[in-house]
Each structure stands twice: as structure tokens, then as C-alpha cells.
Amino acid sequence: MAKQSSIFNFFNKSPPPVPKAKPSPSPAEADLPSSVRKKNSSPKEEAKHASQTPTTKKTPTKPLNAKASKGGFGKLFGNKTLTIKESPAPCPFSAGALVWAKLEGHPWWPCMVVPQPVSGQQMRGRGKSQRLHVHFFDEPPTRGWVSTKYIREYQGSDSSDAKTGGVFFSGKPVIRRAMELADAAMPDSPETRLKMPVCMDPSDAEEDEEEDMESTLTDEDLTEEEDEETVKSKPSRRSSRATAEQGGKSKRRRIVVASDSEGSGDEFKPERAGCSSEEDEEDEEEVVNSASEEDVESEREAEPDSPVKPVKRKRPAEKPSSAKPKPKTPTLPETAKRAPLSSTITANTKSRLSAFSAPESFDSQANGSGAGGQGGATVWDHEKLDWLQEGRRKDAKRRRQSEEDYDPTTLYVPEDFLNKTTPGMRRWWQLKSETFDAVLFFKVGKFYELYHMDAVIGVNELGLTFMKGSWAHSGFPEIESLDSSFLKGLTLSKIILRYLTISPHHYYMMEARCKTMLKPTKFDRVVQREVCRIITRGTQTYSVLDGAPSETHSKYLLSIKEKAEEESSGRCRTYGVSFVDTSVGYFHVGQFQDDRHCSRLRTLLSHYVPAQVLFEKGNPSAETRKIFKASLSSAMQEGLTAGSQFWDAQKTLKTLAEEDYFKESVGKDEEPGSSVLPSVLKSMTSESDSLGLTPKEGYELALSALGGCMFYLKKCLVDQELLSMTNFQEYVPVDVEMEKAAGPTSFFSQTRQRMVLDGVTLANLEILQNVSGGTEGTLLERLDTCSTPFGKRLLKQWLCSPLCNPTSIGERLDALEDLMGVQAQATEVSDLLKKLPDLERLLSKIHSIGTPKGQDHPDSRAVLYEEVTYSKKKIADFLSALEGFKTMQEIVTILGPVVGDFQSRLLRQVCTLHTTALPGLFPDLSAELKRWDTAFDHQKARATGVITPKAGFDPEFDQALSGIKACERDLQDYLDRQKKRLGCRNLTYWGTGRNRFQMEVPDSVSERNIPEEYKVKSTKKGWKRYWTREIERLFSELQSLEEKRDAALKDCMRRLFYNFDKNYRDWQTGVECMAVLDVLLSLTRYSQGGDGGPMARPQVLLPGDISQSAAFLDLRGSRHPCVTKTFFGDDFIPNDIAIGCPGSEEEGQEDNGHAPCVLVTGPNMGGKSTLMRQCGLVVVLAQLGCYVPAESLSFTPVDRVFTRLGASDRIMAGESTFFVELSETASILHHGTKHSLVLLDELGRGTATYDGTAIASAVVNELAERICCRTLFSTHYHSLVEDYTNNPAVRLGHMACMVENEGDEDPSQETITFLYKFITGACPKSYGFNAARLANLPEDVIQSGHRKAKEFERSTISLRVFKYVLN
């Protein structure tokens, strides 16, 4: 019993080790015969009660008094021996009632009480076995019997219990859908609900179960309970008695969990990682608290129910057998109940360990282990702590929440509270106080445990299950951390800020520490734990702890620092930024000035969408914080303390120099003796400081932002592996180079120049995301048929920054033509590209594993129980990378015969090997790949998880092996000399381990011939064994070499990965070449297929290459790139758009042909906005280097696309719809040039008609006559159209429509047919009443509006006539 007590005393507030009342059958077991129901009492409890009440089973009818029932047997099993028959309780819910019901292993589910379809029963059983038949709201519907104990009234999805924090809350889509179905049925009467379609067909398994139930159940609950105990408890009683006979020391049980290491026949032995398991485990058994941890984790492995919920809900009515164990084969593994982990534990073992299993009922969740009332909200122990309540919390420095410098990432835990806790829980609270904003995954044996508030998050976010007790407790096996889908809910959650794991047991450290102490205490015997990794949304590296990547696109960690400056034109801001994609190790560092609208910052946030933002506390201005709140509402935002956490530039440079992050780059990219800083960072330091410790003017903020990023990566323990990759690039806003260019010709002729697409344009044109946040209908979705993850990421980068240089655009177009000409090879290459893994991230992972980590890094001390599994995963990733690079070589070989015919220099470079004879960019990897093919046995390493290098590959391992062979030869030579010396041919070595190499001499050799230097080590009949000083010296040398060999083999994988990473630049260059090829193939597929219509190669001209220097756009027969059908299902109508160039003869406005501005009018829903988006997307496609859906396109390059489309406000930023319109318009007027493309849709509609018309008129005048940029300006202000009818800088166009019965007094007779054709001239009316009729406005409202419109029209005409007469 003392051992059992230690289990419960490990953590404070754990359940008392007294016999507990047996719970009623769980919902999943409620339908099973009583003879096969699962027990929930421990073997020790059973043994004890069996010895205390030996006649209880034999005299079941003997009544117990009330006092006796409160303890002993009565307390464990309740008053089950009473002969008084309980009267059946009335049914609490009638047919058709809506309820919450719960089955074992599943969350609460909305249901409806219905009769059983065969028997018509609505309730069966009595007492605690009383069950109700319910219909589960699901698609398709299911049904089953649920204990009335797990039935609660359904009060709708708006009730407090169904919301966040409530008993019935769940974020799962299937349950949310079920709640919608239940809500829809709530207004109906019970009789109407019963007419709903339900699952009516009984299954065969249910009929069998009905028969079993009828044959097993009796009229007496007492007999039913006793039968169950008699059948189920026999095996566990034997094991309990056997344990009791051992004299108080419980035997350690070996539990086998299905994993990759299963079947090896060996228990996990931490001595392989530098610790002695068996001795330490025996020692730990004598320690109350440490043993409790081990026992808890051992017992949990044998649980019949995993703490991780199954992904899919069982259907109890249709497949009851999945949860029903077979009565005659109780030793079969219950795989149906442990879906995530296929266990090999027998039912006998499960019965013995059931005392520590997960709760089969929901009492601990719904009622706080009996603390709450029926249906009451859970009140956990941690929620009762005064110092943990909201408003009363303090940080580690005892600052209250109301204080300004309160640190929410830490927590003050009172010392007197810690003194009352067990050593294990004390350590948990200590770690929690340091990282209060993190979820602690506390390692206990083979499980990661979550306690208190973390356990609640684990249940709500990850679908874990609460364990027994009044304190919240949940967890999952270590092997589950490899499952990316399991971690997806955590890393994407808005609630969980960090995912923190704790390093596993260090037995040898604890044992060594205790041996040095005279009287070690219980606190000394607790295994020490430390933080191994902190994972946030922005710091995922997809290591073995992160799991596999769940998506291909990058997630950035952004660090930003702002400096506000006064300027004559108003406020001006300077930003320093540093952002990194931790999955590939790419850093971007830069500093730039921005306007009052923060245009460049918004563009940065759109191109590189951050998953997490770091800033200095008190540094960002209110305007910047508003942008973060509005644009990055889903991103994590964390403030760091200035100086200590968010470093300044000097501290950043000093840390870079002291930490030796870039020491491996010396001799590769840098000259010997030069600074080890990468060239990008070196250019940001002062030229006068040779040590590189002083920032250059204009880069102070950038380096400070890098310092904040470095601090956070260091905190997450990934700084060494990421910074040592030396992948740094200076971030320069796209429009900065535009300002530095001498002229348009100079700007467009530079190959590195890109078109500017700010965040507003990307959103309005739906290039990356649609209005709902998805990718359906976007340009990215239309183009993205890339075969590789790194190709998809490159395509997104190309889309965000199209080219501006006509030569570069032409090279991409040439590449598409070349690939169209070699269709067979292109198809074969595409098939091979699909086989490539995410090599870009694999290279980063290999670099991380191969990077030498210091002794102070937790990874050097961590011992993982699933080390073999992790090693297999690492080796599989490495071999996958090797196979990927072989495939890339094969791709280059396939394109080799045709590459000489390619016209595109770009395509020739990426498909040609880089050798002395060839000018290609793709590195020759054949020699390296051949070397790695012979480095080690790939199949053996994949199967065993251990890499044994072949001779000549690993110098350390080879040196140790050669030394061992030489030493063994010396020993053999010495033995041969002794044979001659003694004249005995039978002389041999004997011994094993440390007793090896004893010379075994037969007694036939006379003792007078034995030299004096021979020392007897051991004897046996007829033989004596000797050692000499020479043997001792050679054996000592051999042992030293063997230790070196073992150490080299243990670190072999890391060294091999490190050697592979030495050629990182070549590997990475190959990946980049394949990414370009993949994107070009994707653009080729779009250019060939399109939407079924004609696809044209765009003609891009420099402004100086034509007779006129003005910018123009001539688009003929164009279609929308993403819309192939109209709303009514018809084919898309192509349109011509001419801006800044002479129109065709039928337009009849040759004099306005060079007008840069086009006023677009037309009826509502006539296609104006679609035409404008179509124009913008076609230009983006053309400068991307892709064919466009048109008959022809000729234009001069566009340096920037501006859009003002749609109507939306920014509530989070406190900006109204009209203010947003004017802000976007102001950005256009400030940054637009004559080479820009501006798309303005109905400007001024957010205010009064006169104000809106005046503002729209002024903006048109500014764009057409001062900036002279290409503009499409749609409007419904017909007075504005009249004002610009004769303006040479403005042309008129409208979306055509056909109107019938236009002059009829009855507006309902007026019919409009949209032609969706853009033609010259102005549209006389907007025909708003047609849209009102399509929107189903009431007819009387339309009639009233029509009369009012006639009055306005008459007054307007009268005013115009009067004005004309006066003039």
C-alpha cells in the first residue's frame, strides 16, 4: 500500500489512496453484458479487500449496516449487497427531447431522445445501469444507448455551457455542425422532431447484443454486479496475491508500447546514452516521489484508453462491436479503444493496471470529480488559488497586473505554496513561473504530461482527455509528437502562445548527485528536467519535436523597430526590420523610411506575411500598432524589454562576434583573417571599425531589430542552427530603387527591378487570397500547378514582385516557348519533380542536426525513449534528400540533348551543369552523390536507425578502428612470442569484457619455466591464467581506442550530416535551379491551357523604344485570368482596353486616343469592377513573364499598380469606409508616377453626393493632367462625366447594355440585358432600379423610389436649363 501511496503523492491535490466507489458503467460499455464489463479497481485494492472480507462474495445476500458501507468493501463497491429492490426511476426526458449525451472517449454530443427502432424501448435497465436511447445529430445520423448519468438538457448553442470554457464547448467542426442541426430542431415540437429522418435500421451486432443482454441481465442489480466481479476479477486477483507475496517490494513491470523499436526484445536502456537504467530504476523504487513518476507513466502505457481521443467518433448503434470485447478472449488487445496507439497489452495486464487508467466517465470533467453539481461547470484546483486569479496575479518580480511594467510571461508563485507541493509538482510550478505564457509539456517517462491550466488547453485545443482527480491533468505519448496533424491544432491556435517541452530523465545525473550526499532528501532524488525547445508559430524548424510541415508556404518571424522623425511635409517614420523563415533559415534585414500612411510597411506585411511579430515595448507608434491590429489580427504579437531582450545595434554586433555563429564560414565565403560576419551584415557596420562592432549610419534600427530576433531565437534554443547557415539578405523596399533611378529608361533597364504590388492591391485584385481568406478564385490558385513545395514558395515570391525589365520578361517568355516545344521532355520532367521532397527545408534540417552543439545546450544531454524512432526519421529524411538530388541530376540529363536549342538564356542556365566547359548554374553533384552512396549501408541504417560508416569516410571512426586492429595485432604478436618462450602451442587468450586477454597456460608447463613477470589472474582445473605488464599496457590502450570508436559511432550521424552540410551552397543552388524550372513549367501549363480561349505573348516595350515616350496599354480581346464563365453560366465576354494609345476607327475619338485616363460608366452589375480587375491582373501576368488570356497585348512596363476597389472599413483600426477610401487615394496621389497603372472604382460614394462628386473630380484632374498615369476610373456621377466630356486628357467608355420599355411609367416593365461589352462613350443612366429588382426589394419600395427619382430628374433638368439661359 506504501508503493501505491507514492503514486498518488507525486503531485499535490491528487486523489487519496483510499478505495474509491466503483463508478457506474461508462456509456460505451453500457450495452455490454455484465459478465464482460471492464473493472476499474486496482489489483492491490482487490487483494486488500479480498483479505479483509473473504466471505463477501459467498454471502451476497447478507445485508451490511450503514456504518460498514462507508468504508472498506462498502466504500469500494457501494451498498451492492442490499436485498431491497430499488424501484425504477422515472424517465427524466421524454421522446423528442433535445439533450447532451456522452459516450466514452468522445466529447459531449447534441442528441434527441428517440425510441429504439426494433423494440420501441426508450429506456432500459434500472438504477445506475439505467440507459436512454438517443439519436446523435450527425451526417449521416447515428444512434445508441447512453447512461442517464451522461445525459444533460440541451439549451442551445448560445448557452454558457456550450461556449468557450463551458462543459459542452468543443471547437470540432462536426460538433459545431451537430449543434446547428440541434438548434434548427429546437423551435419544433417533440412530435415534429420525431418525424425527422433518423437511423432506423438495427445492425446484426445490435441484435446479438440484445440477445446477450437478455440472457445476462437479471431482475436484481445485486446479482448483475456480483457476476461481473466474479468473472472479471480472477486474473487480477492472482497477480495481486503474487505481488503481495514478494514482501512489500513491488516488482517492476515491463510495458511494451507499439513503436518502431517494438520486437527488438530489449527494454529501453538509458545507459546507451550515458546512464545506467536498471540500477537507477531499482534505486528510484525506494524513493517515494521519483518512483511515483515512473509508476504513473508505466501504468498509463497500459491504459485501455489513450489520453488522445480518436479522430473519428465511434458509431455505437451501427458498430457496437468496435467497443465490445469478446467474453471468451479477454486477453486480446483492445485496439478499437486505443486508436492513435496500437497497443499489444493484454486485457489481464490492463485489469491489473486499471487503477491508474484514464477516467472512463466524464465526472472529473463535468463535475470536477464530484465537486460540482449536476451539469455544473468544472472548478479545478488551480482555479481555486487566490494568487492565480485574474487581477491578483503578479509577475516574477511581484509586479501586479495593473502596473505598467507588468511582465505577463512570468508568474509569482508563493514560497509557502511550493513547500506544500511534492518535488515533481514543485519543479513544474518553478518552470511555469518562468514561462507563464507557455504550455509546458512535462516529460514523465514516455509521456508528455500537461497539468492545471495547460491541461485545460490541451483538452480544448488538442482533443486530449482529462485524467482522474480534482486537479486538471492530461497528456499524450512521446511518439505522438512526431504526428504533424496532432501538433497542428497547437501551433495554429490563437490561445496557445508557446509549445515547450521538457528534457527526459537524466538518471545518471540524479544517481551521481545522490551518491555524493550523506543523506539525500526527496527533493535531491527527483530527476532534474530542463527546457529542450520552445516552439512558437514563428519559430518552427520542423525537427523531430515539431513534426512534419503541414503546409508549404513560409511562416515568418518579424522583428521591427520604429523611429519617428519630423519632416517639413509632415510625419515621417523610419523602420528597422528583420524577418526570418525558420524552416529554411533565410534572414532578411533592412531599414527604410516610410510615409504617414506606412505604405512600405503595409507592402512588407503583405509580401512576407508574419506568423509572429516582435517589437520593443513602448516603441511602435499608435499608428503602427493599429496596422498590426488590423492587418495581423491572427499573428502572435509579443513585446520585448528594451536593452535586455530587444538589443540595440552595438549589443547585437557584440553578440554576433562573441558567440562564433559564423566560424564555419571562414575559409569558404570569407578570406582568412577577415571578419567572420557575412558580407550583408559586414556592409551594415562602420568602415572605420575593423572589428565590426559599430553600426553604420542608417542601419542602427535594422541591426537592433536583428538583435530582438536573435534574442528570441536564443530563447527558443534555435539560434545556433539558424544563424550558422549565414543566409542573410538585405531587405530593400521595391520602390526605393525606383526613386534612386535617373529616369524611367534607366529604371526599367535594370534587371533587378520589380513592380510594386502593395497590400491593398494584392487584396483588391485577389492575387494571393480572396475576401474570405482562402485561395479559391485567386490568381495564385489559377497559376499554381507546381510540383514541389519550394517551387510553390518561389511562385508566390514572383507573384508579389513581377519584373519590370523587358529583357528579363522576354527571357521568361522565351523559356515558356522553349518548354512548349519539348512537350515530351517537359512532361517527363514534371513527373520527376513530383517525386522531390521539400529539399529546401530538408537541407535546413540536416544543417540543424549536423551543427555541433555545446555542452550547455540541452540537446547534448537529452535522452529520448524513442531515440531509435527519431534516428530512423532523421536517416529517412537524409536518404530522401539524397534520392531527391539524384532525381535532379536525372532531370538535367533528360534536358541535356535539347538544352542547346533553347532560346532562353535563363532556361539554359538552370538546366546546364556548372563546369569549366559549360556556363550553367546547376552544380555537378554526381561526384558527391556517388561518395554518399558508398558512405554507409543505406538499407541497414534505415532499418536499425544507426549509421556505421564504411572505411575511408569518417576519419575519426577509421582512426579508432585502425588503432584497435593494430593493438589487437600487437597482442597477438606478444602471444606468439610467449608461445615460443614457453614452448607451448596451446597458449591462448581467455576472458570477456574487462577480463579479456588473460593468457591461459596448461598445468603441463612447469612452474619453473613461468617467468617472474607473470601474475596469476584466475585459475581453473588444469589451467592457470596470467597477466603481464605488457598485456596490461596493450589492453589499456585497446580499451581507450574502443571508447573512441564507440564515441565516434555515437556521434557518427551528426558528423556525417555535418560533412554533407559543408557543400550547402552547391546543394542549395541545385534546389534554386529546380525551383525556377518548376515555376516555368507551371506557367507553361497555364499558357498552353488557359481558359480554353486564345493566349497571347505580351509585347513589352521600353518608353524610349517607340516614337512617343508616353506610357500606353493596348489590350485586345482580353478575358479575366481567373473567371472563365459569367454569373449566369455563359462564356466570358472578351473586351478591348486602350489607354494612352490611339483607338480604333470605329471609336470615333481619335483626338482623345492618347488620353491617359478613361472614365468608365455603366449600369449596376454591368461588369465595370470586373473589367478593372481584369486589366490589372493581365498586366501582372504579362510582367510575370507569362502568356495572357487575350488576342494581343502591347504596353510599356508598369512600375506600380494602384487599386481603390470595393468598400470596406477597418474597425480594428478605427477607420470608416470613406476614410479608408481617401487614405488609399492619398497613397496613389503621393506615390503614383506616369508609369503607374491606377484602378479607381466609384470614388466618393461614401459621403454626400456633392462632396463625393467634388472629390472625384479633383482626383480625376490630378491623375489625368498632372501625374498623367494610365487610369481606369469608374463612376456613377454623371455630372462628372459631363464635365470631362471635352477634356483631351480623358476618354469616355461604358459597359454596354440593352434596355427595353425604358420610358414606361411603371418601372417594373423596364428590362435590362447586360452585354458585358466595353465600348466608347458614356452611359446615360445607371439603372439602379434594375439592381433593386434583382435584389428582391419590395415592389412598393421600388415604385416609391422611382417616383422620387423622377422628381430629382425634373428638378435637375430645370436647374440646367435655368443655368444655360443665364449664361
TrEMBL record:
GO molecular function, one term: mismatched DNA binding
GO CC annotation: MutSalpha complex
SUPFAM superfamilies documented for this protein: DNA repair protein MutS, domain I, DNA repair protein MutS, domain II, DNA repair protein MutS, domain III, P-loop containing nucleoside triphosphate hydrolases, Tudor/PWWP/MBT
UniProt keyword terms in alphabetical order: ATP-binding, Coiled coil, DNA damage, DNA repair, DNA-binding, Nucleotide-binding, Nucleus
PWWP domain mapped to chain residues: 95-146
Record's compositionally biased regions (Low complexity): 53-63, 319-334
Segments for region (Disordered): 1-72, 183-347
Coiled coil region boundaries: 1024-1051
Residue ranges with Acidic residues bias: 203-229, 277-304
Gene3D superfamilies: 1.10.1420.10, 2.30.30.140, DNA repair protein MutS, domain I, MutS, connector domain, P-loop containing nucleotide triphosphate hydrolases
Biased composition (Polar residues): 1-12
Bias-annotated ranges (Pro residues): 14-26
A Pfam family per the record: PWWP
Localization, UniProt: Nucleus
Domain of life: Eukaryota
PROSITE patterns, per the entry: DNA_MISMATCH_REPAIR_2, PWWP
Residue ranges crossing the lipid bilayer per the database entry: none
tRNA processing listed as a keyword: no
Sequence similarity: Belongs to the DNA mismatch repair MutS family.
Classification via PANTHER family: DNA MISMATCH REPAIR PROTEIN MSH6 (PTHR11361:SF148), DNA MISMATCH REPAIR PROTEIN MUTS FAMILY MEMBER (PTHR11361)
Protein name (database record): DNA mismatch repair protein
Organism: Salmo trutta (Brown trout)
Organism lineage: Eukaryota, Metazoa, Chordata, Craniata, Vertebrata
